[in-house]
């Protein structure tokens, strides 16, 4: 099988990071570029990516994360923040970006713009939150896989209080919401979890070929 499968078996949701071992700036940049290049519905990227290194901020975030040690002990904490209250500005900004990057006219993009607006702007708030949060999770998956490929450890985390994160990081005022978190760094040799066999459904149980 392709060696990526070995990497995917190597990765695990790291419970105990080695706080003395930090990932390089270059590796961080690679991970963030992978995050930036992640696909999203329509290409809208309805999220922002916060990279938290600051020790004091992370102490506060740990308190809002059931005291999980990964929050303070990993090299970096990446908070994926979705845009739960987006309006037409988000779509207009995206159209302006396409015009600038691809050199196409606004008229040429009018149909695409209207399609996005008619599909998305009238969604109920809860649905907007779910949809933008779903997009942020694609970034999460991509980051975890790319990190594994680079033999960098991660822990995906939903075990935190979103309201407290939003307050600590000042997200709400920016129209953002902490969707999910990824702790990134290197595993501690004392983390027993790395030795546990993976628990997954068998192919027969989970995959259907038609
Ligand atoms: C979205 C998401 C949220 C998670 N939240 C936490 C968390 O808050 N704390 C934690 O220790 N593990 C968390 N996990 C890790 C899962 O428990 C773990 O990925 C799962 O048991 C499979 O094990 P493995 O990733 O080690 O293969 C989370 C995983 C995902 C994908």
UniProtKB/TrEMBL annotation:
Q: Which InterPro entries match?
A: NfsB-like, Nitroreductase, Nitroreductase-like
> Has UniProt tagged this entry with the keyword Transmembrane helix?
no
Tell me the ranges covered by the Nitroreductase domain, including all copies.
Answer: 9-186
Q: Which UniProt keywords apply?
A: Flavoprotein, FMN, NADP, Oxidoreductase
User: Coiled-coil segments, which residues?
Assistant: none
SUPFAM superfamilies the record matches: FMN-dependent nitroreductase-like
* Cofactor(s) the record lists: FMN
Top-level taxon of the source organism: Bacteria
Gene Ontology MF: a single term: oxidoreductase activity
Q: Does the keyword RNA-binding apply?
A: no
**Protein family (similarity comment):** Belongs to the nitroreductase family.
Q: What is this protein called?
A: Nitroreductase
Q: Supply the source organism for this entry.
A: Maribacter aquivivus
């Amino acid at each position: 099988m392709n060696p990526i499968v070995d990497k995917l078996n190597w990765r695990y949701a790291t419970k105990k990071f080695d706080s003395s071992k930090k990932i390089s700036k270059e590796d961080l940049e690679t991970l963030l570029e992978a995050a930036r290049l992640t696909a999203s519905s329509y290409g809208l990227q309805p999220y922002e990516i916060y990279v938290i290194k600051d020790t004091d901020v992370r102490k506060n975030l740990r308190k809002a994360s059931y005291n999980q040690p990964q929050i303070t002990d990993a090299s970096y904490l990446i908070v994926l923040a979705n845009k739960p209250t987006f309006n037409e500005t988000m779509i207009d900004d995206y159209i302006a970006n396409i015009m600038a990057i691809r050199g196409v006219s606004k008229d040429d993009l009018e149909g695409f713009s209207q399609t996005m607006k008619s599909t998305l702007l009238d969604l109920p708030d809860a649905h907007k939150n779910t949809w933008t949060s779903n997009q942020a999770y694609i970034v999460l998956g991509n980051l975890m896989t790319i990190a594994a490929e680079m033999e960098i450890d991660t822990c995906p985390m939903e075990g935190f209080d979103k309201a407290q994160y939003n307050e600590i990081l000042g997200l709400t005022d920016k129209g953002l919401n902490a969707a999910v978190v990824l702790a990134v760094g290197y595993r501690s040799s004392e983390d027993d979890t790395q030795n546990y066999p993976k628990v997954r459904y068998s192919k027969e149980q989970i995959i259907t070929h038609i």
